[in-house]
Amino acid sequence: MKKILDLITEVTEEAFEKAGYDAKYARVTVSNRPDLCEYQCNGAMAAKKEYKKAPIQIAQDIVAQMQDSAVFEKAEAVMPGFINLTLKKEYVTEYMKQMAADADLAVEKAEDPQTIMIDYGGPNVAKPLHVGHLRSAIIGESIKRMGRRLGHKVIGDVHLGDWGLQMGLIITELALRKPELPYFDESFTGEYPEEAPFTISELEEIYPTASGKTKCAKDASEEEIAAAAAYKEQALKATADLQNGRRGYRALWQHIINVSVSDLKKNYRRLDVDFDLWNGESDAQPYIAPMVQKMKEDGYAYEDQGALIVDVKEEKDQKEVPPCMILKSDGAALYTTTDLATIVERMQDYHPDEILYVVDKRQEMHFIQTFRCARKTGIVDENTKLTFLGFGTMNGKDGKPFKTREGGVMRLENLIKDINEEMFRKIVENRSVKDKEAEHTAEMVGLSAIKYGDLSNQASKDYIFDVDRFTSFEGNTGPYILYTIVRIKSILSRYAEQGGNAAEAEMIDAASDAEKKLMLHLSRYNEIMAGAFVEKAPHKICAYIYELSNNFNSFYHETRILAEENKEQQASWIALLDLTRRVLEDAIAVLGFAAPERM
Ligand code: ARG
């Protein structure tokens, strides 16, 4: 279904033409003075130059053409040349009816669907998921769902960090603890055990212990410093051996991946985040050698102090963009190399129109280099867009990166647990929901608190994770949106109990200003969804549903729906409620959470 703004613009275009002005000036926007009008057109001001006339005169000529319009109740020219527009109630009602009859709620599917890959999540194997990974998962998931809602083909890839030093560290530590395992015996040629030699909790302890052994305190003795260096040396060697295909290490690595991935999947399921591909840095390895070879042959990569580099600076650069390092002097591949090889793989397997990376904004320079190098060396052609969506840091109330009460890194699991407990407490305290149900409800509302708390901020900005504020039932929060939906559901079910059938309810014209305002806001859903996706801005959907909830609640507070005696009027309100509920539920599904039946 067409956007209401476009429909209105068609009408003003006609008026411009009839009055003898170019239709290109006729664009209508939502009014920024809602006290005066609903929509406005500022084209008369822009047309002043071309027609050498006072804007107010142009505006008057145009509104003269719109006096008996079927769309506008009022079309006024006001100084210095604005055209203020107010829609006819019946026009808005008609749009509402069509929207309600449309399973897509008037959201148009893309005419030219794109294949878009989203690289998000980005957890590192064997390290616990922490809050830093939370934002990537939440924002990426929402953008994926937005794209699909608009009819694009979107492929989400978790892009595991599964190839780095952490693997060598774990292998080194395990070799110390369990030297008898066959993985460390280079002469072993038999089958390795199917069972992993560790559990996830052991794994999560092994990595930080090993990592700790490579560091030492400021006042460390010489012996301690030497021991740490030797340990790190071993871990680097183990990493290189693994990457060069040492059989026992590969087998051990596979165990680490399996144990880690099944734990990651559990955590992501809890967040209702779902990846199509569970590829990792390791999957890109086979593409590195041929890629490097080609970069050399084509003359892009050259040696500089032993390392292999590609220049990516450009004339217009404000700040220095260092060359892209492809291979270190010892021949080792780097993060950039892996990311480039991953693009090679993605182009080969999916030939996407766009690859979007949802990663911490502190990695921006890495992506500038990677993208430029990919383009320069022809890994991507001009038809494939590479986009970096860098997000800010999630801070605690002290304005510093979010930590546990003890000052450690907050694990995602614990954060979710804290929120759910707080939600449970509030729900049990406020309402008479049965306990078992309350636990499940607390999880649903808790998820809305976390996700909405994040998504309602512009992604690139840092934000403060404030448990008290995010879990509040009032204000711009997830629980408030859910509360509004639950309120509507409860009215609808009471209407059904009274024998009414919401599916048959017919909408009639708005009976009050608050009701018309609600309708007008509903009518913008398609425009908001499309715009939010173009800008990759879930916060715009949040702002929209927050205002929608406010508009609904204002209407609700001044309207006695269930006690209404005029059945036709009552049915109309029920239809409006049901449409509001559908839009809210559709929008939160795109954001990545859902509403319970009761709260
Ligand atoms: N694993 C990385 C990290 O934790 C994030 C990966 C982002 N994606 C990418 N293609 N580089 O920092």
What small molecules does the structure contain?
arginine
Terminal residue distance: 34 Å
Portion in helices: 40-55%
Radius of gyration: 29 Å
Strand content: 5-15%
Structural class, by secondary structure, is alpha/beta
Number-wise, the strands total: 13
Q: Which overall shape is indicated by the principal axes computed on the Cα atoms?
A: globular
Q: Which sequence of strands runs across the widest sheet?
A: 1-2-4-3
The average pLDDT is 94
Biggest β-sheet description = 4 strands, antiparallel
User: How many DSSP H or I helices?
Assistant: 20
* Uncertain spans: none
Describe it for me?
By secondary structure, this protein is an alpha/beta fold. It contains 20 helices and 13 strands. The protein has helices spanning 4-18, 43-51, 55-64, 89-101, 131-149, 165-177, 200-213, 222-243, 247-270, 285-297, 335-350, 364-376, 412-430, 435-455, 467-470, 478-497, 513-522, 525-534, 538-557, 567-591; strands spanning 28-30, 39-41, 72-78, 82-87, 115-119, 153-157, 301-304, 307-310, 324-327, 354-360, 385-391, 394-395, 463-464. The strands form four sheets. It has a four-stranded antiparallel beta sheet. Strands 6-5-10-11 form a four-stranded parallel beta sheet, sandwiched between helices. Strand 7 (301-304) and strand 8 form a beta hairpin. Helix 1 (4-18) crosses helix 3 (55-64) and helix 2 packs across helix 3. The model has no long low-confidence stretch (mean pLDDT 94). The site of arginine has 8 residues, from strand 10.
